[in-house]
Each structure stands twice: as structure tokens, then as C-alpha cells.
Write a structure and sequence with these properties.
single chain, about 70% helix, mainly alpha, about 350 residues
Length: about 350
């Protein structure tokens, strides 16, 4: 009985910081969106001109930046409609922008601890690893991001060439962005995630304080901000994560054979487990053994979800955002692209990490 309570406490202790952190980051993303930062950035990207591939690269770069600094879930929720809007502005096929937003978000979520919940779930068993995470993961993160971007352009090269915008075509001017609470909160949150081993409560406190200030000044409404969080989905995944954490610690799920796995095998198992049960439960399940190589494990957990729509919370949020923007993503189209992108990006990340 006492052992079961200890396992439950350990599972809860591992699970709550990431979910608290992503709640704070989603709120900060909402504030940044209300400030018009994402729309203004996208409108400026649309006005850059030049080849259609350049527009897509600029958009993917924006997704990578927001994923790294604010979290990939924030990026797909708020940038997927924005990238679809960019495609409409410059009269391009929306599919490269639609699928590119989620593939890039997953691939570029290795930069900072808070970039992906899986990073924090794995780091929870390695105390003090947070401040050094960026330096350790930078080569792998950069490799996965670059290879994924190149792969998206290669896959969609024909539609991009066919839909190149007319030379000299006049586009709508970008809207005004307010450099206020959204930008301030994003910068401070990124600093907290680099500086602190467990930034969850400080980031959530910052987000709630800024939201309360906005609500009191009648510049924001509480209900829409909370609706953007997708709390039922987060709660369901949290319960699954805790349940699997208890099962892994109790020995109900035998994982000792993974202790001798090499980097490639570790990343492969992590990617396939993510597709089977979602990468958040997979992170708890696999990191609970305490024997796996953290870099390879995170590469599989973060890049592996590009294989199928079941792979990560970000994909589920992306699906909802895409439907809200009027598009209907395809499960088959996602996996057709992901089966090419995920292995290539994971291999590049493993090689970069080794070098």
C-alpha cells in the first residue's frame, strides 16, 4: 500500500510541472495573439515578395522560433491559422503551410526545456539539467529543424512552383502589432525556461498576472482565453500520463530490456511508442526506467510524432486549429509526408548529437 502511494506521488511529481508550464505558455500565446504579434509577423512575411519557396521558408522559420521560445503547442494553436492566411494572401496552395506548421513545430521542439512537454517529463528524473539543455540539444535541434524544412519544400515543390505569386502584385498592408504584455511575457518566459530547472509555476504565475491585468483593464475577456487552453484534452492526457507513470514504476510494464539499446534503437522505440500512445505518456513510460540515453529518447519523442496524427498533443491541437480555419487535414496525407520527414530528421539529429 505504502509503495503504491509512493509510486503515485512520484508519477504526479513528474507529470504536473510540464502540464502547468504548457498552460502558462498557451495563455502567453493567447496574449501575444491578442496583441496582433502573430498576424503582423505573418502579414510582413507575405509582403516579402520573391519566390513562393522563400515565403514558405520564412513562415516555417516563424513556427520554429515560436515553438522554441513559447512551446510547440502554442505555435500550432496560434500560427496554423496565420500560415493558412499567408497562403491565401499570396494565392498559394495552403497545404505546404498547413502541414508545414505542425511538422516544423514537432521538429523544432528540442531547443529549450519548455519547447515540448516531453522535454520536461524526461528532465524531471535528471535534476539540474534544465540550464544546460539548450547547449546539449542545440546540434540535434538545429539538424532536425533544417532537415524538416528542406523536406517540406521538397515534398511540396510542385505546388509551390505552380502557385508562385504574380510579380508586382499588391498585397494588403500588415496590421499594427502592440508591443505589450504578450511580447514581454514571451521574452520573460523564455528566460525563465533557460535559467530555472523547474519554471512551471513562475511561468504560469506570470501568465495569470498578465491576463488578470488585461481583464481588469477590459482589454481581454477571461472565458475566450481559458477556452484556448483545451483544458479537457489536457486533463485527459494528464490522467493517462500519471496512470502510465504508476504502471512503469510498479514494474507492471517490463522495460528493463531497453537499458542496452543504442541511440538509434532508443529513438526508434520512442517514436513508435509515441505513435501508439501519444508522446506524453510515452515520455513518462520510457523515462521512468532511468536507463535510456536522454538525447536519443527526446529525439524519438519529439520528432517521432511526425509519423502519424496520434503522435503528440500538438498534432491534436493543430487538427482542431486547422478545422477552425476552414481546412480539412488528411490522416493519410499527414503520414505520407511524415514517413519521409520523421526518419530523415531523426537520423540527422542523432548524427549531429553524436558529432
Amino acid at each position: 500500500m505504502l509503495l503504491g502511494i509512493a509510486h503515485a506521488r512520484a508519477a504526479l511529481g513528474q507529470a504536473w510541472p510540464p502540464f502547468v508550464l504548457v498552460t502558462g505558455l498557451l495563455l502567453l500565446g493567447r496574449l501575444a495573439g491578442d496583441d496582433g504579434l502573430f498576424d503582423a509577423a505573418a502579414a510582413r512575411l507575405a509582403r516579402l515578395g520573391g519566390p513562393s519557396r522563400g515565403t514558405l521558408v520564412a513562415c516555417l522559420g516563424l513556427v520554429a522560433l515560436v515553438s522554441a521560445l513559447l512551446n510547440l503547442d502554442t505555435a500550432v494553436v496560434f500560427l496554423t491559422p496565420v500560415l493558412i492566411g499567408v497562403a491565401a494572401r499570396v494565392r498559394l496552395d495552403p497545404r505546404p503551410f498547413l502541414y508545414g506548421s505542425v511538422f516544423m513545430a514537432n521538429a523544432s521542439s528540442l531547443f529549450l526545456p519548455g519547447s515540448n512537454l516531453t522535454n520536461l517529463l524526461v528532465l524531471s528524473s535528471r535534476k539540474g539539467a534544465g540550464p544546460s539543455f539548450f547547449v546539449e540539444m542545440l546540434p540535434a535541434a538545429a539538424a532536425a529543424t533544417i532537415v524538416t524544412a528542406a523536406g517540406i519544400i521538397l515534398i511540396h515543390r510542385h505546388s509551390l512552383d505552380a502557385g508562385a505569386p504574380e510579380p508586382g502584385e499588391e498585397l494588403p498592408r500588415p496590421g499594427e502589432a502592440h508591443l505589450g504584455a504578450g511580447l514581454f511575457g514571451s521574452v520573460v518566459a523564455a528566460a525563465l525556461m533557460v535559467a530555472l530547472a523547474n519554471p512551471a509555476l513562475p511561468v504560469l504565475g506570470l501568465a495569470l498576472a498578465l491576463l488578470a491585468w488585461r481583464v481588469l483593464r477590459r482589454r481581454a475577456k477571461l472565458a475566450p482565453a481559458l477556452a484556448a487552453l483545451g483544458l479537457p484534452l489536457l486533463a485527459g492526457l494528464f490522467c493517462l500520463v500519471v496512470a502510465l507513470g504508476i504502471g512503469a514504476r510498479s514494474g507492471f510494464l517490463p522495460l528493463g530490456w531497453l537499458a542496452s539499446a543504442g541511440p538509434a534503437a532508443t529513438a526508434g522505440v520512442a517514436g513508435l511508442t509515441s505513435v501508439a500512445v501519444n508522446n506524453l505518456p510515452a515520455a513518462v513510460l520510457l523515462s521512468s526506467t532511468g536507463h535510456l540515453q536522454s538525447q536519443a529518447l527526446l529525439i524519438g519523442l519529439n520528432v517521432g510524432p511526425n509519423l502519424a496524427v496520434t503522435g503528440s498533443l500538438a498534432v491534436l491541437l493543430w487538427w482542431r486549429a486547422a478545422r477552425g480555419a476552414g481546412l480539412r487535414p488528411s490522416v493519410l496525407a499527414y503520414s505520407r509526408q511524415g514517413l519521409l520527414l520523421a526518419p530523415a530528421a531523426a537520423l540527422a539529429a542523432l548524427l549531429a548529437a553524436r558529432l
